[in-house]
Amino acid sequence: MTRVAVVGVGYSGFNTNTPDLSWKELMYEAAVRAYEDAGINPRRDVDSFVTCAEDFWEGFAIFDEFVPDQLGAVLKPTLTVTADFLYGIATAFMHIKSGLAEIAVVEAHSKASDILTFGNVMKFAFDPVWLRPIGKAHPYYFAALEKSYYSSLRGYCDDVYAEVVEKNKRNGRLNPDAPYSGNVTAEDVLSSEASFYPLRKLEIAERADGAVVFVLASDEVARQLTDTPVWVDGIGWWSETSNYDTMSFTAEYARKAAEMAYDMAGIEYPAKQVDIAEVDDRFAFKEVQHIEALKLAKPGEVDRLLSEGYFSRDGALPVNVSGGNLSVGNLLEATGGQKALEIVLQLRGEAGKRQVDAEVGVAQAWRYVPTASGAVAVFSR
User: Fold this and answer.
1) Strand 103-111 to strand 209-218: parallel, antiparallel, or no bridges (unpaired)?
2) d(Cα 84, Cα 57) in Å, to the nearest integer?
3) Please, what are the averages of pLDDT over each run of 10 residues along the chain (381 residues)?
4) Which of 184, 132, 189 is nearest to 158 (CA)?
5) Phi and psi of 306, rounded to 5°?
6) Is the pTM for the entire model greater than 0.85?
7) Beta bridge pairs of residue 48
8) Which secondary-structure segment (H or E) carries 94?
């Protein structure tokens, strides 16, 4: 079967708010840049358009009907995946693998600054009988519960999460598209007050606006369009449960999704075969959880490896060189897009001051509180 490659990328925003741009304009800017990067005309060349959106975040339903204009997809096959960008990559990947398309476009965006009642919107994802009535408290308290359980299970103290914050905020200082980066030390984190005990404010990624567009192509077309294709070697996705009272609290969704992606990519020893990873860190403890779930480290050893610099930009296995969500921000369903974008830029040697030497990269995203769903993609150059 044909291989699938990323042949063009574009993005817009990645800022705390974008009052001068609507979500349509963000999407349009990202799309134009992706098409220029790939050297294609969307009206002529693209066979399938995939956009990723959750109606609750958008504030209205049937979102795919609002998409074609700014993507150049009028009267072309278009669909919406109600999930993260990496699920969109999976959908486009299957379109090309099946022969339905030779070129497919994937888009996701966040206009989080438009959401006035963020916590209340999140509550709609909770079971309406058993869990939502508890929700007089902010939904972040459920994340705090997960952090508490996970820390107890693994024997981690808050020092490990503080080191995650320090590393990612420091990495973000080399990323011009990381508005929440800064000179934050682990001591600063540990001395700060808990906003949602035991979660501290510095451990929580703030919201951000942005859009990401990828152009994917079959191997034959990819080699015609670019000298630097980035191959999608594996893709996986998984949903554990929708209820906090029955989920694992150990990111089983990420482990299962990674196993699916690794199997497809022929990766047997991720900690040795993966050169760089971008994982979901919208809460600092989630980065640790996801590193373990992706088998980039053994359970219970992430604290030691972090302190030794193993996951630093110049370490053996760099994680979240972009600064992660803690620096770039919570991009809602575009989170996986930011992760995949960083991996593609790194593999193409276009990451600027934060460039590392890598042949194989992994991007992972989670669908946020209160889900236990996520996706993983393996890329190579």
Assistant:
1) antiparallel
2) 12
3) 94 94 96 98 97 92 88 95 97 97 98 93 85 78 94 96 98 97 96 94 97 98 96 97 84 98 98 98 98 97 96 97 98 98 98 97 96 97 94
4) 189
5) -60, -45
6) yes
7) 104
8) helix 85-98
